[in-house]
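Researcher: Please generate the 3D structure of the following complex. Treat every line as part of one assembly.
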Amino acid sequence: MSPSSAIAAGFASPVHDAQRLFRAVLDAFSHPGRIAPIDGAPAGPGGISPATTACLLTLVDHDTPLWLAPELDRPTVHDFVRFHCGAPLVAERADAAFAVLAAGGANPFDGFAVGSDPYPDRSATLLIEVPTLDAGAARTWRGPGIDGARRVAIGGVDAGFWRAWADNHALFPCGVDVAFVCGAQLLALPRSIATED
Amino acid sequence: MPEAAYNYAYLDEQTKRMIRRAILKAVAVPGYQVPFGGREMPLPYGWGTGGIQVTAAVIGRNDTLKVIDQGADDTTNAVSIRSFFAKVADVATTTSTEEATIIQTRHRVPETPLRDGQILVFQVPIPEPLRMLEPREIETRLLHALTEYGVMQVSLYENIARHGRIAKTYNYPVMVNGRYIMSPSPIPKFDNPKLDRSPALQLYGAGREKRIYAVPPYTPVKSLDFDDHPFEIERWDECCALCGSRESFLDEMIVDDAGKRMYICSDTDWCGRRQ
Amino acid sequence: MYVAVKGGETAIAHSLDLLADKRRGDRALSELTLEQIDQQLGLAVDRVMTEGSCYDRSLAALAIKQARGDLIEAIFLLRAYRTTLPRFGNSLPIDTAAMIAERRISATFKDVPGGQLLGPTYDYTHRLLDFSLAAGGERPLARTAPVDSVPGVPRVGDILERDGLLEAPPDASDRAEAGRPDDLTREPLTLPASRPLRLQNLARGDEGFLLALGYSTQRGYGNNHPFVGEIRYGQVAVTFVPEELGFPIEIAGIDVTECDMVNQFAGSLDKPPQFTRGYGLAFGHAERKAIAMALVDRALRAGELSESANSPAQDEEFVLAHSDNVEASGFVQHLKLPHYVDFQSELVTVRALRAEAERRRSEDPALDQAAE
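Model: Done. Output below.
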């Protein structure tokens, strides 16, 4: 299989770019609510942000079924994921290890794998595209990785989202993990984090 | 086969992705042991293969690596692991705790307080804190799932009944974020308080047992104890013969045939800076 | 004065030089070639390939040479190399019925289609040291019959199976269709384990460990009345379906030893009495390993067959967690690493406990007597 000219470029330096971007993602998950710049993220196929593109290139492969929200599910994204990651694209949320969603959808977490009490790691990681990471309505986050409390102002998600999040957090140690992505930035919300108005 | 034939940081990219995903899940569920497809490494099991795999999955050319064993940078296994990464990951190495971005350790937490942004990678022989009380993985996994930790409390209490105190000295179990009992690896209990709300990210790798777990920064890590028998750490009447420290973990050495003792800091970087 | 924390780097460098010298031995003697190891220490090569999970005779020979004949060290070297190799895909299952058998025996029937084929075996050698080997004498070439290389000797098990006397092998088609089989070298073992995963573990497992466990089943620790239905050793083809071709092509011929063990089974509520199987397979010629593996495989099926499972060989977690000699060797030997920090911790506590005991004793002399 050779890259068709329609497929966007991946990493310029796959080994070192993946390492650097993984560290940015790891830093984000270690410090929930802290914005991690994803420097040098490839522009990607369009329709998904450079930060999402970078996460897919860094973390997704043959072993991780990927679910795309219908509004993001276009041929260019498909081809990009298939060519660069080799990830199986799945139609059912329950089958996904990773998922890409747009902010604002109803029931954002429904149906995704949350793991089990003996194996809570067998849960999905959701990449949620949002319009802003710091200019939305601020909430207070608490939990591992946060020194006391942090005010975080994700945009494009409503009260319903945060109610759903509270339910997800209550499943701990089960539950999905979220990374909010916007442009070339990322901010993580692991299941261990509680949020309030 | 020349070194160039191996991938950067030894592991192939697919293996790194698998380990990276496991690390992210470990961070998301602090203290929970994530199974991962541990690979054979060119160093023996039990000699730090878990820590090495974790380090190999996170390390990059911009990192500065410190490796310690028993607190010292120059013990043979630390030397061996450090030179492995200098060779396969083209990375700067240091003995300075402050300068390091990644510190791989066996059996100690540095005396110098760690800072935000540093990663402390522990080599773990037996990741399961309940293993010596219950040898079966199927059982211990269930106990963690149910938060059924009575067996550990009973074990510690038996210590008190027998010895008047908790006699566990290293690999002293901790409770992470109020949910999981975790093995801090065989560090002396002296180091346990340093794990509590540390600004650094703690990653634990067990290669033979194929488990990765983590404590994110600023996460509560409580050493198990009882109200009437609070946790306490080792103390020495002596001070370090080299730097005079009274607050660091001391190694005891027998210096003559008559059994004369000398005490010096276990953390060689810390001790050197104070001399 | 304090040498323990300085000079580690130099010490390691010197140690490596000394080791290289030891490995080479007396330089007045010519160095062993890999071909010599492959040809004349072939069973060592077979074992290293089997437990190293890598079929490559010259790599295994190299590992044996580098390890100075320490086979567990050689297995470790080969595994550590194997894990860096790229994967092209999964071969189709090998077909041992199509084996070009050099040896094939059944203990369950006096004669079987295809015949009893003794082949090269130590079984009937008298264990007398052959001093002619020390003198470097050559024997004349053995005579071989042309039929030795005829492929396709029917398996004894297949014949018994046709009569319903022996259970059929598990149906692998569902796994094959699902894509990739489970792979122990890529995923952590989760318990309870499927039989394919168990067999992978046993195939990689230490021959000595499996031998002892298999032996224990014969001595009553989980007896399952075994008969060697058949042992065969010879060459089989490895076939692979490249995605671009879409049909199988033969990519290699490898030597394997297969043991099909037939065991008594009294039947259960939903199954009539019939014989059951234990299975063993190893690279090269390794009958001891294949038989031991088959015994342990069958023992581990106790739960599935509703048998009581109280013996070590029937304890899945115990067997699977301790079979790997590379893991075991590393962890046992890691005790050589410095542990003085932990020992210091223990010293501090033991001293405190002793002081405490001493204090109590001196405060209350009666305790002294009570203790005695």
